[in-house]
Automatic annotation (TrEMBL):
Keyword match Hydrolase: no
Organism in which the protein naturally occurs: Chitinophaga tropicalis
Domain Shikimate dehydrogenase substrate binding N-terminal: 6-88
Keywords recorded for this protein, A-Z: Amino-acid biosynthesis, Aromatic amino acid biosynthesis, Oxidoreductase
InterPro entries: Aminoacid_DH-like_N_sf, NAD(P)-bd_dom_sf, Shikimate_DH-bd_N, Shikimate_DH_fam
EC number of the protein: 1.1.1.25
Pathway: Metabolic intermediate biosynthesis; chorismate biosynthesis; chorismate from D-erythrose 4-phosphate and phosphoenolpyruvate: step 4/7
GO molecular function, one term: shikimate 3-dehydrogenase (NADP+) activity
CC per GO annotation: cytosol
UniProt xrefs under Pfam families: Shikimate_dh_N
PANTHER family: BIFUNCTIONAL 3-DEHYDROQUINATE DEHYDRATASE_SHIKIMATE DEHYDROGENASE, CHLOROPLASTIC, SHIKIMATE DEHYDROGENASE
Protein name: Shikimate dehydrogenase
Length: 244
């Protein structure tokens, strides 16, 4: 039996476990099992690996995407640049870290892009933002980082004026603002400056339409939530684990 799973803490609701259970059933994959492994500390990872010698791959979620890296033997170029890992492949006694968030984001964003989506605003500066920045860099789309606090390389929400909003037609929310149950929350954008030329992408998938996306839709913008990205990053993990 080949074992795959998800590490993080806590793991009250795991998209991954349900996704792979459905995938295995639908595709008639009999020799594989995917489980959730909530470990209270990353220091418990070596013991987990020892306990399950059949482990072929792990997904990694909050809060371990960065602190897991010292436990690995090597990193893919993307994971090394992003400095975050959400997928581990076990092969020939070696543990390799990958970042499939970047793969999922790129694959779901590309079909939506038009020629005028040539500059972006990235809301938030956390781990998720790093994967988004990596993708935008690789697609040669310049961007500004937006944060509540001013710091080198970022601008604040207060600085978003008509010129910036009209020239940056792609806006990506990487913050947790608006995630269930706090569905009323939204990044403090000047939403009146959003037009039908804008594309608003939210990494959140619950609720399906966040306040951020709804405010954009009300102004005629194209909107996209993070559900497809989640599916695509899970599929990318499966491709990596199976050498597809």
């Amino acid at each position: 039996m080949k074992i795959y799973g998800l590490i993080g803490y806590p793991l009250s609701h795991s998209f991954s476990k349900g996704f792979f259970a459905e995938k295995f059933a639908k595709e008639g994959i009999k020799d594989c099992l995917y489980d959730s492994f909530p470990i209270p500390s990353i220091e418990e990872l070596p013991a987990l690996i020892t306990r399950y010698p059949e482990l072929q791959g792990l997904n990694v979620t909050i809060p371990y995407k960065e602190v897991v890296m010292p436990y690995l033997d090597e990193l893919s170029p993307a994971a090394a640049q992003i400095r975050a890992v959400n997928c581990i492949h076990f092969k020939d006694g070696r543990k390799t870290g990958y970042n499939t968030d970047a793969i999922g984001f790129r694959r779901s964003l590309e079909p939506l892009l038009q020629s005028h989506h040539n500059k972006a605003l990235v809301l938030g500066t956390g781990g998720a933002a790093k994967a988004v920045q990596y993708v935008l860099d690789s697609m040669n789309i310049p961007y500004k980082l937006v944060s509540r606090k001013a710091s080198p390389g970022t601008i604040t929400y207060e600085q978003l004026d008509e010129e910036i909003m009209s020239s940056h037609k792609l806006i990506v929310n990487t913050t947790p603002l608006g995630m269930y149950p706090n569905v009323e929350a939204a990044p403090e954008l000047p939403y009146d400056l959003i037009s039908s030329g804008h594309l608003l992408y939210d990494l959140i998938y619950n609720p399906a339409v966040t306040a951020f996306l709804q405010k954009g839709a009300d102004r005629g913008a194209v909107i996209k939530n993070g559900h497809e990205m989640l599916i695509l990053q899970a599929e990318a993990s499966w491709e990596i684990w199976n050498g597809l």
